[in-house]
Design brief:
12 helices, mainly alpha, two-stranded antiparallel ribbon
């Protein structure tokens, strides 16, 4: 693996160095993700998560709710919400990597001081997901109006064999691609970093964006791999997702390990090894600001 890039400071925090990724690193991360899944299969958890959602969607359609136009955006939304669903998987991989026992009881987040940042970032992704659904609905309305499709066959015919349908497909996929790139950039390593380090949401997002911009080709390829696997898992009535999602979740942890330089003072798993949480006060902000300003001019 190539040498690390320069360490960056932001908001008084030193961000970790970013490594260069090779294509082989992506497939190695997938291999390790599959190994983690094989060691502790978690497909049952995703069955409990995914199939009630499918049941709600099918039930809504059965009672006449206009859900058909949103089926594809909902399926695509798994890629946007996947980092949230995979938090427990990152913890499994983290514990296996450290040689610690892994059980369902270990999947809580009480060990991390970054719980608030995790919630903040999860809410941000949820907001992006809702904006995506609203945007997809507006694209449908712009091409077909507010009239609900009478049948599934009629809906598919309108989408696949009319000019309005092709317009919707092209515009929807183009805008969906933008949403996917944004989510990839801000979340590809941010959630694993928050589990691994004492950091804030902004520091984690900044590190994730730096990881993507430093490795544009390999991260783009990773995004394509994720999209392809999600498509394969979604296509047969979502039957493959209980396997695809856990493997991708575990693989994302190993990708984080490959692209982000390890913490020189890693957080331990036991209480006596944890670093004390630094209490910050509002009055400290001006002092920290002028200190950082003076250090920057001293470097000049």
């Amino acid at each position: 693996m190539a040498q690390s890039l320069t360490v960056v400071e932001t908001r008084g925090q030193t961000l970790p160095a970013i490594r260069r990724l090779r294509v082989a690193d992506l497939f190695d991360a997938l291999s390790k993700g599959l190994s983690d899944f094989s060691a502790m299969p978690s497909h049952a958890l995703f069955l409990c998560l995914i199939y009630p959602i499918i049941g709600v969607v099918l039930g809504a359609a059965a009672f006449g709710f206009d859900i058909l136009p949103l089926l594809y955006p909902l399926a695509a939304g798994f890629a946007l919400m996947g980092p949230i669903a995979a938090i427990g998987l990152y913890e499994i991989s983290r514990r296996r990597e450290a040689g610690l026992p892994v059980a369902i009881g270990h999947l809580h987040l009480s060990h991390t001081h970054s719980r608030r940042a995790i919630v903040e970032l999860a809410l941000a992704l949820l907001a992006i997901f809702l904006v995506w659904l609203a945007t997809a609905q507006e694209i449908y309305v712009a091409n077909f109006g507010y009239l609900a499709p009478a049948t599934i066959d009629g809906f598919l015919h309108n989408v696949l064999f009319t000019q309005a349908g092709w317009n919707m497909i092209m515009i929807g996929n183009a805008i969906g691609f933008v949403f996917a790139v944004v989510v990839l950039a801000i979340s590809v390593v941010s959630f694993p970093m928050l589990l691994d380090r004492d950091a804030g949401a902004l520091e984690a997002v900044a590190t994730s964006i730096r990881a993507v911009t430093a490795n544009p080709f390999t991260m783009a390829l990773w995004g394509l791999i994720v999209a392809a696997l999600l498509f394969v898992g979604t296509a047969p009535l979502f039957l493959g997702l209980p396997i695809v999602l856990p493997v991708l979740g575990h693989a994302t942890w190993h990708l984080y390990r490959k692209v982000v330089e390890p913490d020189p003072l890693p957080r331990g798993f036991e209480d006596e090894h944890r670093r004390p949480k630094v209490r910050r006060y509002a009055a400290d902000f001006p002092v920290a600001l002028f200190t950082s300003f003076g250090r920057a001019h001293a470097d000049d």
